[in-house]
Amino acid sequence: MSKVSVLVVDDASFIRDLVKKCLRNYFPGIRIEDAVNGKKAQVLLARETFDLVLCDWEMPEMSGLELLTWCREQDRLKTMPFVMVTSRGDKENVVQAIQAGVSGYVSKPFNNEQLLTKVKQALNKIGKLDALLNSAPAKMTSAFGNDSLNALTGGQATVVTAPAAPAPSRGLLNNPPPRAVAAASASASAGRGQGQLRLSSGNQQCVIKALSLKEALLVVKRTDTLPQVLDSAVLDLEQGDNAEIARLNGYLHAIVAYEPKPDSEWLQLTFRFVDQDAQKLDYISRLIARGTVQKHFVPGA
């Protein structure tokens, strides 16, 4: 019985590792190859046969949409399942991908269940799912185990301070943002440290305390669902003068209580970027040059 082959395409090694770890945990017999952009994926697709492609949209050299369009122009790749895994969840982007012949769509950030659902749907359509499920699946775990923690943090320990007390009910995601975040939102037209953090558990308004080309220091209101270190996420940044939005893919590198007390209402998150896209890096550079971050943050101010 031949193995099912999957090609994972993303310019961020963190995302590629997350997807591969998830698939290998659930489908022990699966064969996975990866590529850092559409150009590299083209070479692999021309040389080997794959049952499924999981592909990012925004990548240097060749985007996911360009790769999808190319695949649908090749006779032997016209019907190959092609699932887009991207932070571009806007309706117009979804329509564009559908028109190009996409088989499925997974929005970043995603959890294991969301990804596996799309993979199983795609493989079921081509009659490959039963072959994988017949081999007993390993127990599902987090997409990253302890063995990969050092690789993601550069061998440095990550300190997490999580409040021990139950989260206050006033911190629910559907409640109005706190005054500090509301004030930042009101000044968004001036581009002052306002953003939205998208996690698989929901979206949160955030204040950006500091920004570099590698990471952002965020302050968010504590909710009933605490974020976790290594959770993948998307940070939406908007520069108010031209309403330009950058969707930055990354993961939570560290989480600490913002206030020196166990029931702190605020969390400080270190959000590490994983994108290698030149346009996004240029956008971050311009934000840094403009000084559009909150130099000081006072809870409730």
Automatic annotation (TrEMBL):
<protein>
    <submittedName>
        <fullName>Response regulator</fullName>
    </submittedName>
</protein>
<dbReference type="InterPro" id="IPR050595">
    <property type="entry name" value="Bact_response_regulator"/>
</dbReference>
<dbReference type="Pfam" id="PF00072">
    <property type="entry name" value="Response_reg"/>
</dbReference>
<keyword id="KW-0902">Two-component regulatory system</keyword>
<dbReference type="InterPro" id="IPR011006">
    <property type="entry name" value="CheY-like_superfamily"/>
</dbReference>
<feature type="domain" description="Response regulatory">
    <location>
        <begin position="5"/>
        <end position="123"/>
    </location>
</feature>
<dbReference type="InterPro" id="IPR001789">
    <property type="entry name" value="Sig_transdc_resp-reg_receiver"/>
</dbReference>
<keyword id="KW-0597">Phosphoprotein</keyword>
<feature type="modified residue" description="4-aspartylphosphate">
    <location>
        <position position="56"/>
    </location>
</feature>
